[in-house]
Amino acid sequence: MPPPPITTSFKSIRQLLLPLFLFIALSTNAQDKRDTAGFVKRNFVFWNASSAFGDIIGMDNLWLVLGYEKDFKNKICANLSVGYSFSQPSQKGGLLTVPYTVKNGFNISAEIKKRITDRLYIGGHLFFQNTMATGTETVLDYITETPVLLSHYKDISYSVDRSDMAFHVKFGKRCVFKGGITIDNSIGLGIRYISSQSIGKQSGDINYHSNYFETPYSKQYDDGAAFFPSFVYHLKIGFSF
Description:
Blueprint: H1 6-26, H2 28-31, E1 43-48, E2 62-71, E3 76-86, E4 101-115, E5 120-144, E6 150-176, E7 181-199, E8 213-214, E9 219-220, E10 224-240
Antiparallel strand pairs: 1-2, 1-10, 2-3, 3-4, 4-5, 5-6, 6-7, 7-10, 8-9
């Protein structure tokens, strides 16, 4: 008997981690210990925990994103993070997902932040992501004329090359606890540009399986390009030293 699909285990991991992440985010104010030394310059290595839920709007794949942040003089901070996507099938029929399988993907992001207090900050966030996915479409295979005229169809696979670029203005709070454990919560608003193209997709009127649109973007997942408003939430967990 074949092993169960890996998608099931990823989904279970998310269900287990979500309450923990929500608890951490909501309890930050109660647990924070203010740094009495004022604006201390630190190094911060982190895991973007919110990336564990993948692209909730669009793809249901799992990302691992790690990064490094450094404080500079004049209350300026900068960070860089990189991410890798683990291949897994999307949940077909999901409200906010499309049934494509990410074969591979990466992303990179950079932030420059200005500290308002020793914990609060405002800043700019640049983001780029590229994924290669596979999808299916139903096409005409052949026609038989006897005993009656019948059309026969088949499913074929094709690739989707998708790029996602965004800029956000973010507001957040970075809390450093005893032992250097650090939690950074932030939200941001901005603009996003998504571009995708199909490779190996056959043109024609019969493509029942391929006309999926990204939610809330009014763009077909496997074709086209457009600008959209964008919202982000990041929960980063790591250590400061």
